[in-house]
Amino acid sequence: MLGKRMQEALNEQIRIEAESSQVYLAMASWAEIQPGINNITAFFYRQSDEEREHMLKLIHFVNDRGGFAVVPPLEQPVLTFPSLQHAFKQLLEHEIFVSESINKMVDIALQEKDYATHNFLQWYVAEQIEEEALARTLNDKLEMIGNEKSGLYLFDKDILTVTVIDGNAE
Ligand code: FEO
Q1: pLDDT tens track of the chain, all 170 residues?
Q2: Which of 20, 39, 52, 106 gets the highest tally of CB atoms within 10 A of its CB?
Q3: Does the beta carbon of 94 lie inside 6 Å of ligand 1?
Q4: How far is the C-alpha of 18 from the C-alpha of 73, rounded, in Å?
Q5: Residue 21 sits in which domain range?
Q6: d(Cα 102, Cα 136) in Å, to the nearest integer?
């Protein structure tokens, strides 16, 4: 059975994962109307789907352990970006924020001696290492490219290989 404090923290994380899905969905929709970045667009849509999966995993866990998973209200995310660099920078910052939130939950699980939740959260700890590393790699590449059109063309091709390798590692 989940304690009250742990349940509240897990429900807050459900909100954050849902919000992450919305944030990346907005990036995907914005990217989709920019010319020539189809794979980047697909990447954002996939990130959005993954965040929804992260949310669902939490919902099932809370309900399976005798709690009640609360489906949260969501704020409208940022809809447009001055450049691709801005969007990817925001993605990295958002992932760092999510990692901090996961770490806080791990802390609470230890304080509450809730070892089942602690064990469950290890998947998220590992996932965040992957997500942050991927976001950093993509930001580094974009920084090197700058605003060159030819570089962006290659980045759009490259993002498929980077993310497929990362996806296989999960
Ligand atoms: Fe579910 Fe990318 O954090």
Answers
A1: 899 999 999 999 999 999 999 999 999 999 999 999 999 999 999 999 999 999 999 999 999 999 999 999 999 999 999 999 999 999 999 999 999 999 999 999 999 999 999 999 999 999 999 999 999 999 999 999 887 888 899 999 999 887 655 544 33
A2: 20
A3: no
A4: 9
A5: 4-169
A6: 19
